[in-house]
Amino acid sequence: MTKRINKKSEPEPVQSAYWKPQSGLWYIAAVASVLIALAVDIFVPDSQFVNTLPYRVFLGIFIVTLIVLWIISIKVNALRKILYHQAQFIFAVGIVLAVWDLLSTKSNILQLPFFPGPAQIISVIFSERETLLISSFYSLRLFSIGLLLGTLLGISTGILIGWYRQWFYWLFPILKVIGIIPSIAWIPIAVVVFPNSFIAGLFLIVIASWFPVAFMVSVGIASTPKVYYEAARTLGANERFLLTHVAIPNAVPDIFTGLTTATGFSFLTLIVSEMIGAKAGLGWYINWAKTWSAYDKVYASIVIMAIVFSIILAVLNSTRNYVLRWKKGISK
Amino acid sequence: MSKQEILINISGVNRVYYDTTGRPTVALQDVDLDIKKGEFITFIGPSGCGKTTLLRLIAGLDTPQSGIVSIEGQPIEKPGHERGFVFQQAALFPWKTVAVNIAIGLKARNIYKQKSQNIQDYIDLIGLTGFEKAYPHEISGGMAQRVAIARALINEPKVLLLDEPLGALDAFTRIELQTTIRNIWEKTGTTIVLVTHDVDEAVFLSNRIAIMTARPGRISEVITVNLKPERDRNDDDFIILRRKVLEKLELAGKHWSSRLVDPLEQASISGVGEAI
Fold first, then answer.
1. Residue B158 has what pLDDT?
2. Spatial CB neighbours of B196, under 8 Å, sequence gap ≥ 6
């Protein structure tokens, strides 16, 4: 009895990634729902003053992309599986956009400036594209330099702490105490100590990313199975070889775990530090827009952040999958 | 074959372990043994008899409290590439491919450039041609153990130390690998020291079998295996010798029902059965 139930509830491993119904009907429904969102915007009269053209162009591109992808997927099996799997979600997105549009731009139930509709947000993204692009650039510059420095610092302190007991003795307690302080608590000090807001922000991001990386690397090195060292020593390895060819490779999965946490902390620190003292960047932009009660711009920069940060995480994730291809369960 | 050079000398070796409460366990007591160059010797005995400890002393992974373990007259103090070691769990580096795992000894000794052309020979020797680029998690336990053997052999060790290398494998793979090990020994002429609890394996592979007893761990007897090189497990001589080893280990003639079974243990066993 129990066996049969188990078998039913467990999906087949091959299909587990794309388990939604593999039927074209849901995909047609998905395209239709985006078409409905477009039709709602075109045919229902506006009750707010909004430039809806960018939103319509956006929906148009969305629909064309869906159709083009579907045509490609006729020949590419893997792509079709992904598309059909995502069809229900795309369908929901179309419906939500249509309802949101009706509630805001079309009926003024959700009122400006605090609750703009999708059309208003996309129109602001379009009209503010230059400022948003420059702000993103400044944010990315601060973020990447900070994360890079913090990661390098974290990897080196992590190796020292994990490998040498003197370093462990002196540095690990400091790491444990300093590391758990949220980096933004240092803002008042950073603003006073550092000559400009860029370096202050850099300091905060370095602090934010240093701790999780250093901690995970030291744990990864210290947890290397003893038998790996013994095997290497019977093969003629010296101490340096044990560190470079056994302990550090063993810590690489932990480096990525630490790096993922560090990236999240760094996003937070980046935006908060830009909101406080900076004169550029997405955090600064949000704060500036807020003082003008331009909430549509606030939403616009939030959308941009979501896109930029998702891309960064996706890049990090695929790098990790490539580097850790030797690990069971990570390779396809 | 008669008067062979002595490769490894073990004399008056004692090794005591202390647990966390300070209680001593005598792993080895007054152990003496000479291992000859080119021979295949097996340490066999019940768990706790110190056979693995003795092997680890030869490897230099452990040191005796008293007595001396030496190779060609040199006392052994730490591990070295001239004493290859194969662990029960293959202990391959999971982040390296089969070929790179095999080459690691060359890299560790900084002779990779001169000797890298040998790698393929060892892959072929252990029968893993075609799996050069596989990662350890992609190969079976038997294949992993083959890689571990090749990894030790590439250093051309004076002695190959095998610590229950086939203990974790299924019966079919085990027999297959026993033949491989025997072939490797014949082809390379390396001295091999094997630790096992499998009497069949000991008789099939070795020239000599050192019988060990537990508490305190010591060698009670060394049996010379006078079988022809091509061994058959169903040969009368083979069976007679196996019986002799079993008798020395005091395991022969025991019927399962003659064993005393602790009622508590029995209860826990049946309990496990129900849980499944």
1. 95
2. B42, B43, B44, B164, B166, B167, B202
Q: Mark the ranges of chain A whose per-residue pLDDT is less than 70.
A: 1-16, 329-332
The per-residue pLDDT for range B136-184, each reduced to its tens digit, is: 999 999 999 999 999 999 999 999 999 999 988 999 999 999 999 999 9
Report the residue from A227, A236, A327 with minimal CB separation from B87.
A227
How many whole angstroms separate alpha carbon A233 and alpha carbon A230? 5
C-alpha distances in angstroms, B251 versus B73, B199, B245, B246?
A: 37, 10, 9, 5
Please report, in angstroms and rounded to a whole number, the separation of the first and last CA atoms in chain A. 33
User: Whole-angstrom Cα distance, residue A115 to residue A112?
Assistant: 5
Q: Can you name the residues that pair with B222 across neighbouring β-strands?
A: B210
pLDDT in tens, B61-120: 999 999 999 999 999 999 999 999 999 999 999 999 999 999 999 999 999 999 888 899
Residues in chain A: 332
Do the Cβ atoms of B240 and B190 come closer than 8 Å?
Answer: no
| Strand order across the B191-196 sheet | B83-86, B159-163, B191-196, B40-44, B208-213, B218-224
> Positive or negative, the Cα torsion across A112, A116, A117, A122?
positive
DSSP secondary structure code for residue A26 in this structure: H
Distance in angstroms (rounded) separating the CA atoms of residues B57 and B64:
7
ipTM of the complex: 0.88
* Beta strand pairing call for B208-213 and B83-86: unpaired
List C-alpha distances in Å: B81 to A233, B64, B77, B242: 8, 20, 13, 34
Question: Token pair 């230099």 is at which residue?
Answer: B60
- Can you give the three-state secondary structure of A163-219, one letter per residue? HCHHHHHHHHHHHHHHHCCCHHHHHHHHHHHCCCHHHHHHHHHHHHHHHHHHHHHHH
Q: How far is A246 from chain B (nearest CA, A)?
A: 8
How close does chain A come to B95, measured CA to CA in Å? 5
CB contact under 8 A, A250 and B95: yes
The β-bridge relationship of strands B208-213 and B218-224 is: antiparallel
Amino acid in the structure at residue A37 = A
CA distances to A37, A46, A53, A258, A318 from A120, in Å: 14, 12, 10, 39, 34
Pairing state between β B83-86 and B24-36: unpaired
Residue-wise pLDDT tens digits, A232-242: 999 999 999 99
Q: Does A235 contact chain B (CB < 8 Å)?
A: yes
